[in-house]
Each structure stands twice: as structure tokens, then as C-alpha cells.
């Protein structure tokens, strides 16, 4: 494995006055080119140049992320409460910070500092969605409705971002859309009553039918909001499709299931199995992977399943 990998930083998060003294890179035709070294300060003129050329992201070496994380944490609260920034920009800043928090938390979930940072993220997310009536408002309803779904959703975001970055090497803007889709993948559960969601016994056919509707209902609702693109919506609609064609809502089979939905199904299943539920206790990491392996060629594409298992095993070591 490479000894460092690149992390994207949204231009919105680079405040000329406070940004730490680290090198920034630009991506040009697939190559990372040094834009400024550690000595030179990122200036207002630089920001304007980026705006003119529609550059949304710059890149830093993963080894510099510690410093970036500290910078983001200290400036986040200030940026979020500033009247000079509009809600879209605040959302992007928050989103950027979420990605950093979550990727780090997943890399070392046992670190108390990562847990604390995750808690902060949840707080910031809540504050933001509380004040903002755009895209992320949807998240608030999910949080209010069922705490399990929120914990699970944040976990699926972390896993899915990591998996998309490591296995498919997707561009930061697509990654962002996958993250938004993952955060809201079970949004449709708000249409299912708490009575069914919290039922400790086996579900009746009618109840199961209602649960299954969450994918299509969530998709229909979020599509009507007109603020989510197809990448995000695909995750919401198709995360319960199965490789053998027996999933829902569309019953897509094999590679007709979009790649992002196949990966989301893996992340979703792993997260759901390893969290406590009302009807059963969490299963261990090893047991979850064993149960998932039994679904090779049934629920999951064999190749993708192996890659996923390798990735989560690597992260658990
Ligand atoms: Fe779901």
C-alpha cells in the first residue's frame, strides 16, 4: 500500500487567515501538482483564482490531516455561526468536517478522541439541520424518529465513503453525493410506524411489506425535494437489491444493480448486523463477515464481497 494517500479539502474550508502552514496540491489530468508550499500563506487572491477557475477542491497529503482536523475543529463553530457565509457553504464545510471525523473514527473507533469528535459531528449536524431548511432538513426527521437509524446511517456513511474511496477511487464530488445518499438511505423509515420498527417479535407479512416500502417511499420523497442528485437517490432506492434478483424494490439482478447500490448494501448489512437491535443483540465483526460470506452470489456479487471483507478486516487490525 502507498505510504500516503490524498485527501480532498473543499475550498470553502480554506480560510486564508487561519489555514495551517501545509502544502496544498491541485489535481490536473489525474496528477497531483504542488500549488503552494508550507511557507507561503493561502491568500484571498488564491481563493478568487479558484473561484474563477471553478476549482472546488484542493488536496493535502493524508499525513497532514491531523493538522487539518485540528484547524477544522477550532474554526468550525465560528464558520457555522458566521453571518457572512450562506447555508450552502456552511453545509459544505460541515460535510467536509464530517468526512474527516468519520473516516478517522472508522480507522480507529477505539480511540476516545475519535468518539468525542464523532459526538461533536453529530452535534454540529444537528445544529446545522436545526437552522437550515434546505437539503439536510430531511436528516432531522430521521434523527427525531429513531436513534438506531441515525447511528446506523452515520456508520453506513463512514463505511461507504471509505469503501468508495478505497475500492473505486471516486472523485470527491461523487463521494459527497454517495455520503448524502448513505446518510439518508433509510429515510423512508419515517413512513413506517414506531410500533413496527420497534417490534421485538417476528414481523407479519403485512408488516414486512410495509418495511420494504421504505426504499421506494424514501426515494419518492427525497426526489420531490429536488435537492438530491441521482447518485444520492440511487443509494436510497436500491440499497436492498440483491445480486440474485430477489431484492427490492426493482428486483434488479447482477450488474444491473448500480455499483454504488451494491456497495451500499454491503455497508448497510455489515452495520445492521454489528449494532444492537430491538429483536437481537449485535453480532461480532467475525460473525457478521461469516454470515455475509454465506450470501456470496446470492445477496452480494462474489468479487465485490471479497474486496469489502478485505477492506473491513484491514481496518479492524
Ligand atoms: Fe434500508
UniProtKB/TrEMBL annotation:
It holds the Pfam family HD_5. CDD domains: HDc. Signal peptide: none annotated. It comes from the Bacteria. Residues 121-317 form the HD-GYP domain. InterPro entries: HD/PDEase_dom, HD_GYP_dom. This is HD domain-containing protein. It comes from Geomonas diazotrophica.
Amino acid at each position: 500500500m502507498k505510504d500516503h494517500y490524498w485527501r480532498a479539502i473543499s475550498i470553502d474550508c480554506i480560510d486564508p487567515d487561519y489555514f495551517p502552514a501545509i502544502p496544498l496540491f491541485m489535481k490536473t489530468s489525474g496528477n497531483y501538482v504542488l500549488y503552494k508550499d508550507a511557507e507561503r500563506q493561502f491568500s484571498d487572491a488564491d481563493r478568487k483564482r479558484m473561484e474563477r477557475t471553478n476549482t472546488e477542491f484542493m488536496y493535502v497529503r493524508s499525513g497532514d490531516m491531523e493538522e487539518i482536523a485540528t484547524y477544522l475543529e477550532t474554526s468550525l463553530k465560528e464558520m457555522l455561526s458566521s453571518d457572512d457565509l450562506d447555508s450552502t457553504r456552511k453545509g459544505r464545510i460541515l460535510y467536509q468536517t464530517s468526512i474527516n471525523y468519520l473516516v478517522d473514527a472508522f480507522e480507529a473507533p477505539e480511540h476516545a478522541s475519535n468518539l468525542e469528535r464523532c459526538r461533536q459531528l453529530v452535534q454540529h449536524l444537528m445544529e446545522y439541520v436545526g437552522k437550515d431548511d434546505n437539503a439536510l432538513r430531511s436528516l432531522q426527521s430521521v434523527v427525531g424518529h429513531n436513534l438506531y437509524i441515525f447511528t446506523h446511517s452515520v456508520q453506513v456513511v463512514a463505511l461507504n465513503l471509505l469503501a468508495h474511496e478505497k475500492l473505486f477511487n471516486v472523485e470527491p464530488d461523487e463521494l459527497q453525493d454517495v455520503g448524502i445518499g448513505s446518510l439518508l438511505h433509510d429515510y423512508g423509515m419515517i413512513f413506517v410506524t414506531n410500533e413496527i420498527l420497534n417490534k421485538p417479535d417476528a414481523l407479519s407479512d403485512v408488516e414486512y411489506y410495509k418495511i420494504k416500502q421504505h426504499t421506494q417511499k424514501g426515494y419518492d420523497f427525497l426526489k420531490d425535494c429536488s435537492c438530491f442528485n441521482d447518485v444520492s437517490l440511487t443509494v436510497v432506492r436500491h440499497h436492498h437489491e440483491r445480486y440474485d434478483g430477489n431484492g427490492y424494490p426493482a428486483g434488479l439482478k447482477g450488474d444491473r444493480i448500480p455499483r454504488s447500490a451494491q456497495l451500499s448494501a454491503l455497508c448497510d448489512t455489515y452495520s445492521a448486523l454489528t449494532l444492537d437491535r430491538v429483536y437481537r443483540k449485535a453480532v461480532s465483526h467475525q460473525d457478521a463477515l461469516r454470515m455475509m460470506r454465506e450470501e456470496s452470489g446470492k445477496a452480494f456479487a462474489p468479487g465485490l464481497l471479497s474486496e469489502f471483507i478485505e477492506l473491513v478486516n484491514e481496518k479492524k487490525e
